[in-house]
Amino acid sequence: MNQDFWNTKNGTISYFPDGSLNIAYEVLDKHLNAPNRNKTALIFEPENGDTVLYTFLDLIKLSNKIANILTNLGVVKGDRVFLFLPRIPELYASFLGIVKTGAIAGTMFSAFGESALKDRFENSEAKIVLTTKELSARIEQVKNRLPKLEHILVVDEENFKQQLEQASEQFSIVHMNSEDYAFMLYTSGTTGKPKGIVHAHGGIIQQKESAKLVLDLKDDDVYWCTADPGWVTGIVYSILANWSLGITTIVYGGRFDAQIWYQILAKNKVSVWYTAPTAIRMLMAKGDDLVKQHDLSHVRFLASVGEPLNPEAIIWAQKVFGKPFHDTWWQTETGSIMIANSPTLEIKPGSMGKPLPWMNANVFNQEGSQAQVDEEGDLVLHPPWPSIMRTVWNNQEKYDSYFKNGWYITGDRAKKDKDGYFWFVGRADDVIKTSGERVGPFEVETALIDFPGVVEAGVIGKPDSLRGEIIKAFVVIKPEVKPSEELKEQLKEHVKKYLAGHAYPREIEFIDKLPKTRSGKIMRRILRAKEMGQDIGDTSTLEEY
Ligand code: PRX
Predict the structure, then answer these.
(1) Ligand 1 centre from 451 Cα, in Å?
(2) What is the model's pLDDT at position 424?
């Protein structure tokens, strides 16, 4: 890490006089007696109903009230407090309210089902969760198995609203060190249960700098990052970096709808827009006429993240918006944008761009040395950097497995060209990216096996022109169970309920037997090759198939 560089940036972060900090102060409370006090921080566009505006002062007060409620319930530094909420203002204010108390704020995507919730609450030993009436039903199903979960706060219940009403608007923010934990979120790998990736307060310095540099955020921008805070982009670039820069930020509470998205852009005169390839492709599919019906002349800068951005999407944007999407690459674990098409970089459509000036990225070949120009290899980054994850919750072994010979191994395959641009090739493991959302095949397989009559299941990502990948499941059922379309539908519904609404297999195929290694591990590589009609490669470790 270039410590000298980050030392020069320390001055841009608000530290307390004792040298400590708290990201909630840097993001909100530093604006209390400053020019942004009465500036609009949040423009909330609900799915139904009128727009609601929150100034920085409003958010300071609301997050203080929440911090007071939590402190009265016994929350102390280091406790885990989770949010299982849709995109409503309470989610944003509560995140910062939790952080103010010194607790670790955890988010869970609102599509999660019972088992996904149980795994995450169990592993994190969360003490409190904030949720809504509608979503709380899923927690009720599992709460008996969660002895550490002391309180379920339902933010749209009268009782909570009254508590909020009565709570003080003043709160004394808990002072933290740069290395103290601030937030965590679960993400999936190839095997095992989801991992709790933990980030520290000190990451804010890089989150803020990257937003300035890559997203080009300026004081008078109206900014919309479409990501949900259940995922890392929705935390880092729609709560932390943006508000630490004092930027007016849009939150849309509803589901994707091309017409509504264009209306939001036009009505609010959005100038900087950070979204994801699947959404861009869905907009493309709705055609150019729809775009022309809206005045999008205020849109100044477009960026994308989460999955490969195909050149057609960039070319389309250039045609309809008069400017391209700038692809950015990073991960839950990296805590901020690592590789990007920054505003001043000439875009090579299809490339992720170049590492940010403070990052050292490389591509390693099988021997662990630098790959040749245009040679595919493992994408690696040189640690540490301020926003890197600090631990994997209760799983030191997993954390250690990310590092090899002094490098952080991303798990992605990539190439670097002669001009230093990086090109994404794919994942080195079996992690699935569907509509930009990261799904572990093991979790989906476990959900399928939970259904009566299923013997085993193998799950892969299948390339899809709209969603990047869709989840495809190969399912072995008991001889007495009859394969049918109806059974497929039942399995899909089961995965939605058990695991998550976004993680169900859109395609299911019944097969007699799964390809496995001699030690009994499902070989998803073979399932993928078969699905794609490719050569199945080396099968020397394969059990007879
Ligand atoms: O495989 C890469 C893909 O998303 C993974 C990280 O997913 P997640 O932790 O959910 O974070 C997503 C947003 C920060 C990466 O390992 N990915 C992310 N951005 C890109 C990408 N793949 C191709 N191009 C990108 N720009």
Answers:
(1) 31
(2) 98
